[in-house]
Amino acid sequence: MTEFTTIASGLRFPEGPVVLPDGSIILVEIEAGRITRVAPDGAVDIVAQPGGGPNGLAIGPDGKLYCCNNGGFAYHDHGGLLVPGGQPDDYSGGRIERIDLVTGAVEILYQSGDFGCSLRGPNDIVFDAHGGFWFTDHGKTRPRERDVTGIFYAKADGSYLEEVIFPSENPNGIGLSPDGCTLYAAETYTCRLMAFRITAPGKIDATAGLGGAGIPLYRPAGYKFFDSLGVEAGGNICVATIGECGISVISPAGELIDFVATDDPFTTNICWGGADMMDAYITLSGTGRLVKTRWPRPGLALAY
């Protein structure tokens, strides 16, 4: 059994962890609508309060924090677990925000309607080596209906936004292969890991699969749903897995090579830090914890 150390607890549905150079971890508390810094000793400080539903995070080329804001969820308590639900009455709209880590100032970089795009529930984000970023839109669920959404590419200066992949079945986690040539996206309800061949910055091969651009790489059996993902330096894709909870480690060839079990049904994200990039930080969102463990392989260093 993998041993975990709890770094912080009492968080309100934490997700989107990013390890900073000083060893602290920036993450979101989706239910509380805030961005939080967790120091190596577990001290917790609020960095910014964008409201809505801050979700995936990434550091951009300007050193600022880029945030996928899903506009909020409805929540309920289920036997001591904080569980997200459908679109809330106070849904504030999907957007991409840029946050100054020093001042906490929040700027809306893109919002629904910009460049003719509809943003319902932006979820997760990854920067490429060219200074642009890919992000998923998980959409929103309402009684008897669910949004059909896509995967987007944008420039960090606010000058360009495009829905590159449509449709996608409630895409959640997103990541890039070490060589930057493959885009990975995890779909929650289909529990599929999809692979897309990148042909140029912000462009993919639209003819790669029989049903369009994506190639289904892996889909597990059992009561599982995919959330966010991270990529190892060697190319394996580590997908946070809800339900039968843990981290599913999938090879670029589509083989399950490991499953690291956790004790929270809402295991939602993984990132890496440390001098050897083998300190893994995992968000256990239902119980409100950030935990740490030593990973058997190094994680991939992010673009910024």
Q: What name is given to the CATH topology? A: Neuraminidase
Number of domains: 1
Question: At CATH's second level, what is the architecture?
Answer: 6 Propeller
- Mean pLDDT equals 97
Instruction: Compute the CA-based radius of gyration.
Output: 17 Å
Organism: Sphingomonas qilianensis
InterPro entries: 6-blade_b-propeller_TolB-like, SGL, SMP-30/CGR1_Lactonase
Pfam family, one: SGL
Protein name: SMP-30/gluconolactonase/LRE family protein
Write the topology of this structure:
Blueprint: E1 5-8, E2 14-19, E3 25-29, E4 34-38, E5 44-48, E6 54-59, E7 65-69, E8 75-78, E9 81-84, E10 95-99, E11 106-111, E12 122-127, E13 132-137, E14 141-142, E15 145-146, E16 149-155, E17 161-168, E18 171-176, E19 182-187, E20 192-200, E21 203-204, E22 215-218, E23 224-231, E24 237-243, E25 246-250, E26 256-261, E27 267-273, E28 279-284, E29 289-294
Antiparallel strand pairs: 1-29, 2-3, 3-4, 4-5, 6-7, 7-10, 8-9, 10-11, 12-13, 13-16, 14-15, 16-17, 18-19, 19-20, 20-21, 20-22, 23-24, 24-25, 25-26, 27-28, 28-29
Fold and architecture overview:
It holds the Pfam family SGL. It comes from Sphingomonas qilianensis. The protein has 304 residues and is an all-beta fold. It has a single domain (5-294), classed as Neuraminidase (6 Propeller). The chain is built from no helices and 29 strands. The chain has strands spanning 5-8, 14-19, 25-29, 34-38, 44-48, 54-59, 65-69, 75-78, 81-84, 95-99, 106-111, 122-127, 132-137, 141-142, 145-146, 149-155, 161-168, 171-176, 182-187, 192-200, 203-204, 215-218, 224-231, 237-243, 246-250, 256-261, 267-273, 279-284, 289-294. The strands form 8 sheets. Strands 18, 19, 20, 21 and 22 form a 5-stranded antiparallel sheet that branches. Strands 1-29-28-27 form a 4-stranded antiparallel sheet, with no helix packed on it. A 4-stranded antiparallel sheet has the order 2-3-4-5, with no helix packed on it. A hairpin with a 6-residue loop joins strand 10 and strand 11. The model has no long low-confidence stretch (mean pLDDT 97).
